[in-house]
Amino acid sequence: MRAGLVPSTIWFHSEVGTTGSAQAETTKLFPGETLFSTPKPERLIERILQIATNENDLVLDSFLGSGTTSAVAHKIGRRYIGIEMGDHAMTHCAPRLRKVIEGEQGGISETVGWKGGGRFRFYRLGVPVFDENGHVTKGVRFVPLAAHLWFL
Ligand SMILES: C[S@@+](CC[C@H](N)C(=O)[O-])C[C@H]1O[C@@H](n2cnc3c(N)ncnc32)[C@H](O)[C@@H]1O
User: Fold this and answer.
1) Nearest to 36 by CA among 63, 67, 65
2) How many CA atoms lie within 13 A of 101 on its CB side?
3) Helix (H/G/I), strand (E/B), else coil: 97
4) Which member of 18, 48, 115, 116 has the lowest number of beta carbons within 10 Å of its beta carbon?
5) How far apart are CA 150 and CA 152, in angstroms?
6) pTM summary value
7) Phi, psi (deg, nearest 5) at residue 79
8) Which of 33, 43, 49, 85 to mutate to test the pocket of ligand 1 (most atoms within 8 A of CB)?
9) d(CA 31, CA 17)
10) Domain boundaries of the chain, sorted by first residue
Protein backbone atom coordinates (compact mmCIF):
# COMPACT_ATOMS: atom_id res chain seq x y z
CA MET A 1 0.00 0.00 0.00
CA ARG A 2 1.29 3.47 -0.86
CA ALA A 3 2.07 5.76 2.11
CA GLY A 4 -0.64 8.38 2.59
CA LEU A 5 -3.32 6.36 0.77
CA VAL A 6 -6.68 6.67 2.54
CA PRO A 7 -7.83 3.15 3.50
CA SER A 8 -11.01 1.86 1.86
CA THR A 9 -13.46 -0.45 3.62
CA ILE A 10 -13.29 -3.29 1.13
CA TRP A 11 -10.02 -5.14 0.88
CA PHE A 12 -9.82 -7.30 -2.19
CA HIS A 13 -7.98 -10.59 -2.13
CA SER A 14 -6.00 -9.36 -5.11
CA GLU A 15 -4.53 -6.70 -2.78
CA VAL A 16 -4.20 -8.44 0.58
CA GLY A 17 -4.15 -12.15 -0.28
CA THR A 18 -6.24 -15.07 0.91
CA THR A 19 -6.01 -17.90 3.41
CA GLY A 20 -4.81 -20.00 0.47
CA SER A 21 -1.96 -17.64 -0.38
CA ALA A 22 -1.09 -17.47 3.32
CA GLN A 23 -0.94 -21.29 3.41
CA ALA A 24 1.47 -21.13 0.48
CA GLU A 25 3.63 -18.60 2.35
CA THR A 26 3.87 -20.78 5.45
CA THR A 27 4.45 -23.95 3.40
CA LYS A 28 7.36 -22.22 1.68
CA LEU A 29 8.81 -21.40 5.09
CA PHE A 30 8.09 -24.83 6.60
CA PRO A 31 7.67 -27.38 3.80
CA GLY A 32 5.27 -30.22 4.52
CA GLU A 33 3.83 -28.66 7.68
CA THR A 34 0.44 -27.12 8.41
CA LEU A 35 0.57 -25.17 11.65
CA PHE A 36 -2.84 -23.47 11.40
CA SER A 37 -5.75 -23.91 9.01
CA THR A 38 -6.42 -20.16 8.75
CA PRO A 39 -3.10 -18.29 8.56
CA LYS A 40 -3.11 -14.61 7.54
CA PRO A 41 -1.22 -13.46 4.44
CA GLU A 42 1.67 -11.09 5.05
CA ARG A 43 0.06 -8.52 2.73
CA LEU A 44 -3.02 -8.34 4.96
CA ILE A 45 -0.99 -7.76 8.11
CA GLU A 46 1.17 -5.25 6.25
CA ARG A 47 -1.89 -3.20 5.33
CA ILE A 48 -3.16 -3.23 8.93
CA LEU A 49 0.22 -2.17 10.28
CA GLN A 50 0.61 0.53 7.61
CA ILE A 51 -2.73 2.01 8.68
CA ALA A 52 -2.34 1.63 12.44
CA THR A 53 1.35 2.28 13.06
CA ASN A 54 4.34 4.36 12.07
CA GLU A 55 7.92 3.31 11.53
CA ASN A 56 9.62 2.20 14.75
CA ASP A 57 6.29 1.86 16.63
CA LEU A 58 5.90 -1.15 18.92
CA VAL A 59 3.49 -3.87 17.70
CA LEU A 60 2.15 -6.37 20.26
CA ASP A 61 0.75 -9.74 19.19
CA SER A 62 -0.11 -11.66 22.35
CA PHE A 63 -1.30 -14.71 20.34
CA LEU A 64 1.65 -15.04 17.99
CA GLY A 65 0.61 -18.23 16.20
CA SER A 66 2.87 -18.76 13.20
CA GLY A 67 4.57 -15.39 13.73
CA THR A 68 3.17 -13.53 10.72
CA THR A 69 2.60 -10.25 12.57
CA SER A 70 6.14 -10.15 13.96
CA ALA A 71 7.64 -11.16 10.60
CA VAL A 72 5.78 -8.35 8.82
CA ALA A 73 6.55 -5.83 11.58
CA HIS A 74 10.23 -6.72 11.24
CA LYS A 75 10.22 -6.31 7.46
CA ILE A 76 8.52 -2.89 7.52
CA GLY A 77 10.58 -1.36 10.31
CA ARG A 78 8.34 -1.71 13.33
CA ARG A 79 9.51 -3.02 16.68
CA TYR A 80 7.44 -5.89 18.04
CA ILE A 81 6.63 -8.13 20.99
CA GLY A 82 5.18 -11.57 20.22
CA ILE A 83 3.81 -13.80 22.97
CA GLU A 84 3.15 -17.48 22.39
CA MET A 85 2.53 -20.29 24.88
CA GLY A 86 2.80 -23.20 22.41
CA ASP A 87 5.97 -25.11 21.57
CA HIS A 88 5.75 -23.58 18.09
CA ALA A 89 7.24 -20.43 19.67
CA MET A 90 10.51 -22.37 19.49
CA THR A 91 9.85 -24.65 16.52
CA HIS A 92 8.28 -22.11 14.16
CA CYS A 93 8.12 -18.48 15.35
CA ALA A 94 11.79 -18.07 16.29
CA PRO A 95 13.07 -19.95 13.20
CA ARG A 96 10.75 -17.86 11.00
CA LEU A 97 12.15 -14.62 12.41
CA ARG A 98 15.70 -15.93 11.93
CA LYS A 99 14.84 -16.56 8.28
CA VAL A 100 13.49 -13.00 8.03
CA ILE A 101 16.80 -11.68 9.40
CA GLU A 102 18.62 -13.83 6.85
CA GLY A 103 16.55 -12.12 4.13
CA GLU A 104 13.90 -14.72 3.19
CA GLN A 105 12.01 -13.65 0.06
CA GLY A 106 8.47 -14.91 0.78
CA GLY A 107 5.36 -12.86 1.60
CA ILE A 108 5.87 -9.09 1.25
CA SER A 109 9.67 -9.27 0.96
CA GLU A 110 9.84 -8.43 -2.72
CA THR A 111 7.31 -5.58 -2.63
CA VAL A 112 8.95 -3.89 0.38
CA GLY A 113 12.48 -4.56 -0.91
CA TRP A 114 13.37 -6.68 2.09
CA LYS A 115 17.06 -7.65 2.13
CA GLY A 116 17.41 -9.00 5.67
CA GLY A 117 18.99 -7.62 8.82
CA GLY A 118 17.95 -6.65 12.34
CA ARG A 119 17.62 -8.84 15.38
CA PHE A 120 15.22 -10.10 18.01
CA ARG A 121 15.49 -11.52 21.50
CA PHE A 122 13.74 -14.70 22.62
CA TYR A 123 12.69 -14.99 26.28
CA ARG A 124 10.98 -17.73 28.26
CA LEU A 125 8.63 -16.61 31.00
CA GLY A 126 9.61 -17.85 34.45
CA VAL A 127 7.30 -19.11 37.19
CA PRO A 128 4.81 -16.56 38.60
CA VAL A 129 6.62 -14.96 41.54
CA PHE A 130 3.49 -13.73 43.37
CA ASP A 131 0.11 -15.38 43.90
CA GLU A 132 -3.29 -13.66 43.49
CA ASN A 133 -2.97 -12.20 47.03
CA GLY A 134 0.43 -10.66 46.38
CA HIS A 135 2.29 -13.26 48.45
CA VAL A 136 5.41 -15.00 47.21
CA THR A 137 4.23 -18.16 45.44
CA LYS A 138 4.89 -21.37 47.35
CA GLY A 139 8.06 -23.01 46.10
CA VAL A 140 9.60 -19.83 44.65
CA ARG A 141 13.24 -19.66 45.71
CA PHE A 142 16.15 -17.26 45.41
CA VAL A 143 16.79 -17.19 41.64
CA PRO A 144 13.34 -16.07 40.38
CA LEU A 145 13.02 -13.67 43.34
CA ALA A 146 16.42 -12.14 42.61
CA ALA A 147 15.48 -11.89 38.91
CA HIS A 148 12.26 -10.09 39.84
CA LEU A 149 14.11 -7.64 42.10
CA TRP A 150 16.59 -7.00 39.29
CA PHE A 151 13.68 -6.36 36.93
CA LEU A 152 12.15 -3.86 39.39
C1 LIG B 1 -4.96 -18.57 15.87
S2 LIG B 1 -3.38 -18.25 16.50
C3 LIG B 1 -3.20 -16.55 16.15
C4 LIG B 1 -2.34 -16.36 14.99
C5 LIG B 1 -1.93 -14.96 14.61
N6 LIG B 1 -1.98 -13.96 15.67
C7 LIG B 1 -2.72 -14.53 13.40
O8 LIG B 1 -3.46 -13.54 13.47
O9 LIG B 1 -2.57 -15.17 12.38
C10 LIG B 1 -3.64 -18.20 18.23
C11 LIG B 1 -2.36 -18.48 19.00
O12 LIG B 1 -2.49 -17.98 20.31
C13 LIG B 1 -1.83 -18.86 21.20
N14 LIG B 1 -2.37 -18.61 22.54
C15 LIG B 1 -3.61 -18.89 22.99
N16 LIG B 1 -3.74 -18.49 24.28
C17 LIG B 1 -2.55 -17.92 24.64
C18 LIG B 1 -2.07 -17.32 25.84
N19 LIG B 1 -2.83 -17.22 26.93
N20 LIG B 1 -0.81 -16.87 25.86
C21 LIG B 1 -0.01 -16.98 24.76
N22 LIG B 1 -0.42 -17.53 23.59
C23 LIG B 1 -1.67 -18.01 23.52
C24 LIG B 1 -2.10 -20.24 20.63
O25 LIG B 1 -1.13 -21.18 21.03
C26 LIG B 1 -2.05 -19.97 19.12
O27 LIG B 1 -0.76 -20.21 18.60
Assistant:
1) 65
2) 10
3) helix
4) 115
5) 5
6) 0.86
7) -85, 160
8) 85
9) 20
10) 13-122
Nearest residue to 48 via CA among 7, 101, 95, 106: 7
DSSP state for residue 31 in the 8-state scheme: T
CA-wise closest residue to 77 among 118, 40, 110? 118
pLDDT tens for 18-31 read 999 999 998 999 99
Q: Which of 41, 94, 28 is nearest to 68 (CA)?
A: 41
Q: Atom 20, ligand 1: which residue's CA is nearest?
A: 85
**CA 67 to ligand 1: nearest atom:** 5
CA 146/CA 149 separation, integer angstroms: 5
Q: Which residues line ligand 1 (CB under 6 A)?
A: 36, 39-40, 61, 63-65, 68-69, 83-86
Band (pLDDT 50/70/90 cuts) for residue 14 is very high
Backbone angles phi, psi at 91, to 5 degrees: -85, -20
Please choose from 63, 69, 124 the residue to mutate so as to test ligand 1's pocket, defined by most ligand atoms within 8 A of CB: 63
CA distance 110 to 104: 10
